[in-house]
Design goal:
This protein has helices at about 25, 115-125, 130-140, and strands at about 5-10, 10-15, 20, 30-40, 60-65, 75-85, 90-100, 105, 110. With about 150 residues, the protein is of the alpha+beta class. The longest helix is centred in the C-terminal third of the chain and has 13 residues, at about 115-125.
């Protein structure tokens, strides 16, 4: 762990740029939606597409959230839109892969290893209703006022 330059929400920002917080604070993180975007279609030209008629098109994207502390906590992750299983109507947003963040969990001056850090950050994300904010951002941006009836 690097010596701290500033204190933030009980944690510290060190010379290496990491915002360090203890695990208990990570579990209680309050983050707010900053932005969401969609990934471009990998091949938008239907004449070159290898997709068969009637197959689904993957819808994926990314979202970025920030903390309410200073210095700013940043956490982002990728998502994909999935249709609900047969017999159910609708879609759901699913987090894909590990999050990206400037947050490093540190206990007693010792940083957790990268794998454990990512597991804790993913668990913190999975405890919040991020899907609603992503859904609103995507469907409002694309002018789909009736998205709640999907």
């Amino acid at each position: 762990m690097q010596p701290s330059d500033n204190q933030a929400a009980g944690g510290s920002v060190s010379g290496d740029g990491w915002l360090r917080l203890p695990e208990a604070q990570v579990r209680a993180l309050e983050i707010r939606h900053l932005m969401t975007g969609m990934d471009p279609d990998p091949d938008p030209d239907p004449s070159r597409s290898t997709r068969r008629c009637g197959t689904s098109v993957p819808v994926t994207g990314y979202t970025e959230w920030v903390g309410r502390c200073h210095p700013q906590l940043s956490i982002g992750w990728d998502w994909r839109l999935e249709t609900l299983p047969s017999g159910l109507r609708g879609v759901r947003f699913v987090r894909v892969g590990a999050p990206r963040s400037n947050l490093l969990v540190s206990e007693g001056g010792i940083d957790l290893d990268c794998a454990r850090n990512l597991v804790l950050l993913a668990a913190a994300i999975d405890r919040i209703d991020w899907q609603s904010a992503v859904c609103r951002a995507i469907f409002n941006f694309h002018s789909c006022p009736d998205y709640q009836n999907w």
